[in-house]
Amino acid sequence: MPGQWVYEVGDIVKLKKPHPCGSNEWEILRVGADFRLKCMGCSHQVMVARKLVEKNTRGLRKPEQNNL
Question: What's the 3-state SS for 11-52?
Answer without folding.
Answer: CEEEECCCCCCCCCEEEEEECCCEEEEEECCCCCEEEEEHHH
